[in-house]
Amino acid sequence: MELLLLLLVLPIAWLVMLPKRIAGAVRRYRVQAVGVLLVILVGGWFAIETATRPAELRADYAAGDTALRALLE
């Protein structure tokens, strides 16, 4: 049981420490700052785009299903 808990805690701890590691890498290499900024901007753009996009209308397949069943009989 303790091993299972340890296996669950390690990835969570790694994800919690990820922003600090990214910030450290950006401080060391200024070129990465542009890459990190671009990734954040593109990720935010995708998130906003999917959140604000109107829901697609669901298709009604009943008519085609009936026609297909009639064809297959």
Explained architecture:
It contains three helices and no strands. The chain has 73 residues and is mainly α. It has a domain at 27-52.
The gist of it:
The protein is an all-alpha fold and 73 residues long.
Helices, strands, pairings?
Blueprint lengths: L1 H27 L1 H23 L9 H11 L1
Helix pairs in contact: 1-2
Label this structure with key terms:
73 residues, mainly alpha
- From the helix content, strand content and strand pairing, which structural class follows? mainly alpha
Q: What is the chain-wise order of helices and strands? A: HHH
**Beginning-to-end CA distance, first to last residue:** 57 Å
Total strands: 0
Q: Would you tell me the overall average pLDDT?
A: 83
Helix content percent band: over 70%
Report on the biggest sheet. Answer: none
